[in-house]
Amino acid sequence: MALTLADIKARPREEVTFTIECSGNTGLPFFNGGIGNARWAGTPLAPILKEAGVLDSGIEVVFWGTDEGEIKRADEVTFKQNFARSMSLADAMDPKNILCYEMNGTSLPADNGFPLRLIAPGWYGIANAKWLKRIEVRDQRFESRFMGRDYVTVREEDHNGETVWAETSVGRARLKSAPARVTHIGSDYRIVGAAWGAPIDRVEVKIDDGPWMPATVDGTEEAEFAWKMWSLDWPKPSAGEHTVTSRAIDKSGNIQPAMSDPWIAKKHTYWESNGQVTRRIQVS
Ligand SMILES: Nc1nc2c(c(=O)[nH]1)N[C@H]1C(S)=C(S)[C@@H](COP(=O)(O)O)O[C@H]1N2
Ligand SMILES: [Mo]
Question: Boundaries of each Moybdenum cofactor oxidoreductase dimerisation domain copy (predicted)?
């Protein structure tokens, strides 16, 4: 099935506000800004797959981008390949996935995937393939640099006392928050930040080694996949360096893990890092 951009734009339109986080956004000082929120518009993917006629043997959907690079595998096999990411057929058929041609009310910018990208709400950045040129259904699990070599999380897991090392392809977004900035008017300081990755119940903030304090979470934005902004007043901090750490708690009661939590500490690659983010603040 071949579709022009005009064909795709003529199909039913769907919008979603979705915060995309790069799975490499560690929260460590060298990379903590790899995230952004936008209003994306496009047409649902599932009806197109259905119209194309997926065979019973189809299990995996591959999204190919126009960007390409040289691949050199550990076994020395070398070749040129376009960017490619895949999803199981069940994940791809999620009615929330859209083939997106608009960002914040304007044509998708070149950097963000013009003419067309996948928007897969609830997934880390890498799943949201940009510059799409082909979508195909295959009857085998698909491996590529961006499925099976890069964007692979290596985690040491405890299974009833036995250590199991698991290598998994980066998947769905995880519960996370971060302090974004500290503002002040005179001596009245305020910490503002964001929380995302799961339905947010509340956010708590710790200054230096003090107790966790409840932040005020902005209740106006009800979009399921959009980050929530939060703030905490910080009256009259003493001069000098302080640390500010936040943790999000989701509606099921899960708490964003500390960096020392085994979930983070026993993860040996930097992908999918949803540990608590600590920022350093200089008050003068
Ligand atoms: N074709 C293609 N799609 C891609 C990528 C890429 O390199 N090529 N990078 C991915 C990664 S790692 C991220 S974090 C997001 C970034 O999306 P943005 O540029 O709209 O923020 O795009 C994803 N889609
Ligand atoms: Mo990324």
Answer: 184-260
3-state helix, strand, coil in the chain (%, to 5): 10, 50, 40
Q: How far is the CA of 127 from the centre of ligand 2 (A)?
A: 9
Cβ neighbour number for residue 176 with a 10 Å cutoff: 27
Atom of ligand 1 nearest to the CA of 112: 20
Pick one of 2.60.40.650, 3.40.50.620, 1.10.8.80, 3.40.80.10 as the CATH number of 176-283: 2.60.40.650
What tens digit of pLDDT does each residue of 16-27 get? 999 999 999 998
In DSSP notation, 152-163 reads EEEEEEEETTEE
Strand partners, 256: none
Question: What residue ranges line ligand 1, CB within 6 angstroms?
Answer: 20, 22, 36, 65, 67, 83, 111-112, 125-126, 128-131
Q: Please state the CATH superfamily assignment of the domain spanning residues 5-66+86-137 in this structure.
A: Oxidoreductase, molybdopterin-binding domain (3.90.420.10)
